[in-house]
Amino acid sequence: MFTRTDRAQRRAHIHKRIRKRLSGNAARPRLTVFRSLKHIYAQVIDDDAGSTLAAASTRDKSLDVGYGGNVEAAKKIGKAIADRAKKAGVEGVVFDRGGHRYHGRVKALAEAAREGGLKI
User: Fold this and answer.
1) Domain of residue 24, residue span
2) Is pTM, for the whole model, over 0.85?
């Protein structure tokens, strides 16, 4: 098994490798996901302009998610980021899983964003 720092370094290395190939622009921004043990965060980013177009997380008081470390919370955040992105005029995005496996909370967030109307 890997220690915590080894896992973090490995995920950072994977994320760097992904980001070499993956970039968002004004026409198709990047939907990035970060997850911790207690929370999950999602942002829609235009890399050309260097700006965040929409963001949602389980720490938002307005969403009232409760505990953010489960699949149900990830689904709520996926729907919220889809709504906020559509309000910002975004139809399609490039999905950046942040070095995490496409499984569990990351997958639930992506599928909920698709159901919310985002084209991934």
Assistant:
1) 4-115
2) yes
